C-alpha cells in the first residue's frame, strides 16, 4: 500500500511481490491464467457443441451446461490455496495424511549428562538418572 505522508511517499516493502505485483501478460492476467482460460473455453465449447448435436437441446442451454467444465479447468489450473495450485495442494494433503513420523527430530533433555544452571544460590538441582532432586547447601 502506498500512502502520501506529507512530501514523502511511503511504500511498504514487506509485501510478497510475486503475489501483489504479478507479471502481467494481458489485461492484468498472467500467461498461465490466459492459457488456462482459453483451454477452458475451448473444452467447454466442444462440450456444448457435442451436447447440442447429440440431444438437440438449444445451444444456449448447452453453454450453461458447459459452465462446470470451465470451472473445473480453471480451478485446477488457476485457483491457489495457501500459495499452491489445487493439484499441488491435494498432493501435499495426501503426503501429510500418509506421514507416520514427525518431520523434525526432537530430543528429550537428558539431565544425567549435565548440571542444570540456576540463579538461586540456596538450592542447587543435581540431576541423577533423569530425575530432578534438590540439595540444600
Please characterize this protein's 3D structure.
The chain is an alpha+beta fold and 137 residues long. It has two domains: 2-98, no CATH class; 108-137, no CATH class. The chain contains five helices and six strands. It has a two-stranded antiparallel ribbon. α2 packs antiparallel against α4. The longest helix is centred in the N-terminal third of the chain and has 25 residues, at 31-55. It starts with a strand and ends with a strand. The relative contact order is 0.07.
Keywords:
single chain, 137 residues, alpha+beta, 2 domains, two-stranded antiparallel sheet, 5 helices, elongated
Instruction: Outline the low-pLDDT stretches.
Output: none
Task: Characterize the biggest β-sheet.
Answer: 2 strands, antiparallel
Number of strands: 6
The average pLDDT score comes to 78
Give me the Rg, rounded.
Answer: 31 Å
Amino- and carboxy-terminal Cα gap: 62 Å
Number of helices: 5
- Overall tally of structural domains: 2
* Arrangement of strands in the largest sheet: 1-2
Taken as a percent bin, the fraction of beta residues is 15-25%
- Percentage of helical residues? 40-55%
Order of helices and strands: EEHHHHEEHEE
Give me the secondary-structure category. alpha+beta
